[in-house]
Amino acid sequence: MKKALITRLSGQDRSYLAEYPLALGYEADGLVHREAASMRWLQPVSHRMEMIYGDLRDATSVTV
Predict the structure, then answer these.
(1) How far apart are CA 26 and CA 22, in angstroms?
(2) What pLDDT score was predicted for residue 43?
(3) Contact at 8 Å (CB) between 54 and 30?
(4) Distance from C-alpha of 1 to C-alpha of 10, rounded to nearest angstrom
(5) Angstrom distances, CA of residue 40 to CA of 12, 37, 44, 45, 62
(6) In terms of Cα–Cα distance, which of 2, 1, 6 is closest to 46?
(7) How confident is the model at residue 26 (pLDDT cuts 50, 70, 90)?
(8) Nearest-angstrom CA–CA distance, 4 and 17
(9) CA-CA distances (angstroms) from residue 62 to 20, 23, 47?
(10) Are 30 and 56 in contact (CB under 8 A)?
C-alpha cells in the first residue's frame, strides 16, 4: 500500500489536502501540533489516518 505523510496538517487547507490521498487509497499519516483551536479542521479525516504530534522545528519531537 502506498503511504503519504502530510506535515502541518492542523490547518484548514492541509486538512482538505489530506482527503486527496485517502480518496486514492493511500495510507496517510499527519504531523500536527497540539493546538486545540486548529484540531477542529481534522474532524473529517481524523478517524481515517494516524496523527503524529510534533513540530518540525523541534527535532526531539519527531525523532522515532
Answers:
(1) 5
(2) 80
(3) no
(4) 24
(5) 9, 6, 9, 10, 22
(6) 6
(7) very high
(8) 11
(9) 24, 26, 21
(10) no
Q: At 56, phi and psi to the nearest 5? A: -60, -20
pTM of the model: 0.71
Query: What nine digits make up the cell of 18?
Result: 489530506
* Residue 36: predicted pLDDT: 63
> Is the predicted pLDDT of residue 24 greater than 90, yes or no?
yes
Nearest to 38 by CA among 51, 20, 50: 51
- Grid coordinates belonging to 34: 497540539
Dist. CA 34–CA 52, nearest whole Å: 10
Please tell me the distance from the alpha carbon of residue 24 to that of residue 52, in angstroms, as a whole number. 21
Cell of 57: 522545528
Strand partners, 5: 29
Please report the pLDDT score of residue 45 as a whole number: 82
